[in-house]
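Predict the 3D structure for this chain.
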Amino acid sequence: MNKLRLVFSLPFLFSSVVWSGYLESDQDVLIPQEWAHVDRVGPTEELELTFALKQQNVHLLEEKLRLVSDPDSVQYGKHLSLEEVASLVRPSDLTEKVVHRWLQSHGITNCLTIRTQDFLQCTMTAETAERLLPGSRFHRYMRDGHYLVRSSAPYSVPDDVHHHLDFVGGLHRLPPKGLDLSKKQKSKAGFHLGVTPAVLRTRYNLTSADVGSVQNNSQAVAQFLEQYYHPADLSEFMAMFGGGFQHRSEVDRVVGTQGGGKAGIEASLDVEYIMSTGANISTWVFTNPGRHESQEPFLQWMILLSNMTDLPWVHTISYGDDEDSLSAAYMTRINTEFMKAGVRGISLLFASGDSGAGCRHLGKENTFRPSFPASSPYVTTVGGTSFKNPYKVTYEVTDSISGGGFSNIFKMPDYQTTAVNSYLKTVAASLPPKSYFNTSGRAYPDMAALSDNYWVVSNRVPVPWVSGTSASTPVVGGMLSLINDQRFMKGLPALGFLNPRLYKLNGKALFDVTEGCHYGCLDEQVQGQGFCAAPSWDPVTGWGTPNYPALLAVLLSD
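Done. Predicted structure below.
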């Protein structure tokens, strides 16, 4: 079996095809104004497109994930190998035959697959791609000095083929701008405590002894926005802030190629805080290994997870997009990829976003705007908090930017129905109007951590006031890695998909956050406010923030 040639591209984005009969869409693809048109792609220029083949037994995969993730199940922790996952979900012989025949009929033979055989990545000329996908027209666009190739028009596939494909990647979706992690700096003039590894360890009750020690443990961050960390920054950060605990000052493995130029705040933040919280644990960085303008980096990372037998046990990812900008078919397939990781014992943590409940303007009516993958039922989503008193380590309140809400696409999973329905009932009188959100949707976040006013070293300079759930997510990830470390020492399996067990804790071992609200639509009805924190679970901070020794104790009680 050939391994896929992984080619990452520009910033984090999704591409999707909504199959409805023969045509994807009757409307032209809207190219945001910030993307400047450069030129029409020449007919002989090469493109790389990704074909997501229909998988088998997705319902069995979901049930297996439920069983291995439920602490009350006799199958809890009995994770599958990549080979076992592949044998479960690999496309049918008919699907493989139909898709290969379709590609070969257009002279497309330069295709590589992966171990699970449910993705094909094919190289072809633009002229061939436009014949293969009638209606597509490939153009080159530029933003902030970065180029990508996308189709400016909708496309179609034959009826007998679309039943065997979930989507084709590399055609439409354009990446959102990266997060402005220092956007709250102006409002924080004057002295402030600032969040450092020592502050986090004090607040969450980690001691100097809470560091990794086993050889078979590892953790990872993933970068999609052409963000790079600099090893010198990590070394200096640990010299400044890592004196109180045993730690590593180097990343053990970079999957991909580190770009040149300046370090990115996002990448620096992720690496420095997963390695100072999950201290002394082997850490990987997944990054952009060279760029092909027609590829999608998030999709390539997901494919990579299905092509590597040995992976870190905890991955933290700080990117997302509006649910309504993606097709349900695409998100559903990405959910299946998350399930494939979960049944292998891998924990995927996503930031909940920095727009509160979000807001979508629909004519005269507004609704809240959930984010994906934060809204996926198959990942653990991390929100954000601030100190009540910004001048000392105190209890936490909500960070008003903390993303949270209810999916408009995915139903509420069974593991959270009791907690979420209790919240909806308890605070019914103060909830936003029901027209703003879907009360039966997957609710998020699941938990939270401090997300306000971090110190980061980037380009050899200590930078204050860095804020966002991009900060809280690697902090939680690092703590889960420490817990995995202790589990491995006892001969227990990795935590894997945490949510079913997290919700059965019913708030035990977490600091409940009960004060504050996050942003919502700025209109007459909700007046800029989304949801508010409440006792137990809420859609701003989830179950609250980790009390590490207590959380370790309950997650070691197998």
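Confidence is low (pLDDT under 50) at residues 1-28, 182-190.
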